[in-house]
């Protein structure tokens, strides 16, 4: 975790009992989705309770949702989710792959920022759910002297259940700060040429010249109702796929847009990835690759769901060739993109 080494000092001409003040600096706080502290029952229950109690994720009235969540869902789901996490857990570091990979991303981003701005910019990360929490990291940055903060939700496409809830949590944390820093939130970046180019490079690097019959672009799902209420996520996913096809030089029908991680009984954005890949195999399309452009970091939804459940559905239906294209993670092109995003949002704050 990044450490601040700037010593605090008493301001010139201040009285002897004036508290020491750290050197002013600008903070860059990157927010990822989150991770449980462990894969045991109680760690999973705490994490799932926080996640599934978020009104941006599940917007049912509390009187209707909370009894179901607390009495039924959270008595069973921690066991199944814990088993899924256990299958991909980083046992050496005793943490989830998302946490390991996020640390690597932020380490490289911090190095890139230090090369540009020296110690004037402090880079750190938080998780919307789980640890390190948004509040704890924001407090640490303020105590280190950050009076201006760029907040970067690590989501290429905007959705209320991802970008907006990360911002919500930041604003709640700001309410507890006696001295609030100025804050800029970074907008979605799905149509930036450098993002699309980084995605295309990851496809080309993974496939090594081979072109499958289909490249399935699987995005995290959300209820269709949210789209009808004005959430732009679905449209931004469709455009991401189209721009990726153009950059690869492939026909648009070589790429499909699908949605995964369906939860509950209401209709979500379609087609569902797990059903779609099985239908492809049944139609004789037996060689596919799957990429997940909505995730900047490999996590349970990619390492276990795509490379496990979705792969199995495809192969069970007769599929032969299944290639998973990893998330951008700490790839150099991804770090360069994030650094440029930070630079643009630091405009006027740092030369």
Radius of gyration (CA) equals 21 Å
Shape: globular
The CATH topology of the largest domain turns out to be Rossmann fold
Beta-strand residue percentage: 15-25%
Which stretches are low in confidence, meaning pLDDT under 50 for 5 or more residues running?
none
Class of the largest domain, according to the CATH hierarchy?
Answer: Alpha Beta
How is the largest sheet built, in terms of strand order?
2-1-3-4
Q: Give me the strand/helix succession.
A: EHHHEHEHEHEHHEHEHEH
Topology diagram in text:
Blueprint: E1 25-35, H1 41-52, H2 62-88, H3 97-117, E2 121-130, H4 134-143, E3 146-153, H5 160-174, E4 182-185, H6 193-207, E5 214-220, H7 224-228, H8 233-248, E6 255-260, H9 273-282, E7 287-291, H10 300-316, E8 321-325, H11 332-345
Parallel strand pairs: 1-2, 1-3, 3-4, 5-6, 5-7, 7-8
């Amino acid at each position: 975790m990044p450490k601040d080494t700037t010593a605090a000092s008493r301001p010139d001409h201040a009285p002897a009992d004036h508290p020491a003040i750290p050197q002013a600096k600008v903070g860059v706080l990157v927010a990822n989705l989150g991770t449980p502290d462990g894969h045991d029952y109680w760690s999973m229950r705490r994490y799932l309770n926080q996640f599934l109690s978020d009104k941006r994720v599940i917007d049912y009235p509390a009187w209707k949702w909370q009894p179901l969540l607390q009495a039924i869902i959270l008595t069973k789901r921690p066991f199944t989710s814990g088993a899924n996490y256990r299958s991909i857990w980083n046992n050496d570091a005793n943490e989830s792959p998302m946490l390991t990979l996020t640390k690597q991303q932020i380490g490289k981003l911090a190095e890139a920022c230090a090369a540009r701005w020296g110690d004037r910019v402090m880079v750190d990360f938080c998780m919307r759910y789980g640890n390190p929490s948004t509040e704890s990291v924001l407090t640490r940055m303020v105590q280190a002297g950050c009076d201006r903060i760029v907040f970067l939700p690590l989501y290429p496409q905007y959705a209320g259940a991802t970008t907006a809830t990360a911002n919500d949590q930041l604003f709640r944390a700001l309410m507890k700060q006696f001295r609030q820093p100025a804050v800029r939130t970074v907008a979605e970046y799905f149509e930036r040429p450098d993002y699309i180019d980084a995605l295309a490079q990851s496809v080309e690097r993974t496939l090594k010249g081979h072109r499958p019959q289909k490249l399935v672009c699987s995005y995290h799902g959300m209820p269709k109702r949210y789209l009808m209420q004005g959430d732009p996520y679905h449209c931004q996913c469709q455009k991401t796929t189209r721009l990726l096809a153009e950059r690869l030089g492939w026909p648009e029908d070589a790429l499909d847009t699908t949605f995964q991680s369906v939860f509950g009984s209401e209709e979500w954005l379609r087609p569902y990835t797990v059903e779609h890949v099985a239908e492809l195999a049944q139609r004789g399309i037996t060689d596919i690759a799957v990429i997940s452009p909505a995730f900047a970091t490999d996590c349970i939804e990619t390492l276990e769901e795509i490379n496990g459940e979705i792969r199995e559905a495809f192969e069970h239906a007769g599929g032969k060739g299944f290639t998973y294209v990893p998330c951008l993670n700490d790839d150099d092109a991804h770090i360069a993109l994030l650094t440029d995003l930070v630079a643009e949002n630091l405009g006027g704050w740092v030369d």
